[in-house]
Amino acid sequence: MTPIAAVVKSLRNYDSSHEIRMWCDKAFEAQAREIITAIDPDVRVDIILAGKFRRYYGIPLFRQLLRFSDIVLPNIIDAFKILAGFVQSFVKMIAWRPDVVFCKGGFVCLPAGIAAFLLRIPVVLHDSDAHPGLTNRVLSRVASYIATGASLDNYQYPVEKASYVGIPISSDFRMFSKPEADDFKKKLGFDTRAPLVVVTGGGLGAKPINDTVVDVAGKLTKDINMILITGTNQYAEIKEKLATIPAKKVKIFDFVSKGMVEMLGAADVVVARAGATTLLELAALGKPTVLIPNPNLTGGHQLKNAEYYEKNDACVMVSEEAMLASSTVFFDAVRSLAMDAKHQERLSLNIHRLAMPHAADDVARLLYKAAHQDMRRKEAA
Q1: Fewer CB atoms < 10 Å away: N or C end of the chain?
Q2: Half-sphere exposure of 37 (CA within 13 A, CB side)
Q3: CA 342, CA 345: separation in Å to the nearest integer?
């Protein structure tokens, strides 16, 4: 959602009169409304049905076919959701008739992108991950322009319509001075003399990370302060399990939107998954980071993202498998980085070199270009 918010902000900077709508599925509705309306309350958020094709990295196909209840049956159900979402999208676009459709990747984009193509509405696609997902591979065939989050040698997109722009992030994400970071810490209620670690598993949370933090929180918070963003599913459970640790040492949130920049800005170390958007936000902030990539996502794209940053000495990487085998692996990685200012400084400089601060403006320009080309085509016809 945050890349879309950044593009919306750039579009408004060009021309505040645009009518902009955002479509998402039900699972992300609350987050979408909170994030997008904070940027622009005039953006209308609509819900469409969508489904995904479940495939799990590292699990042989024949084993996946044997898992009827959690893979095969949900895939059958979601196929009907995709069809229903296509009909919804088609009807909505006939009624609204947008000048251009921006598809930010993910399974929700598939029905909307196909509907736009059939109605001859230009599609601009953005692919954040170094490993293209199924939806992006399908929509790349019909897109007018494709913007990528990683360099073009990671993709097989047609070079005549693909360009490497990075990932759109808000201009609020920037490197903060130590006095600014200390001020953020004070506002959050933390002692500025102790390192602050912010742990986040993404918008919906990450159970393996949450459970590991519970295991080590007592030891970790002896000389380190911590913020844990659990996601909505485990919030009540984790809050209860960590209730004995003083609030001045640990603060727990289910989801953060408005204050996320300041919260990450306050951190001495961030622990996160290796989603492409998260990585570019942390790069813009120049934050020393411990990455725990999700190993089960299609194509292993988080593993590839994390390996790229590790290769550039821009993070500490911890495998989920090793962490689940022993929470000490997590504890040692986080504590050693939090207590080592020189290591933090080196990682901060290296990760910041990977930032792409103009991505939102570049995507906005592609949207304008596609829309104007389509207008000229219609006038010529």
Answers
A1: C
A2: 10
A3: 5
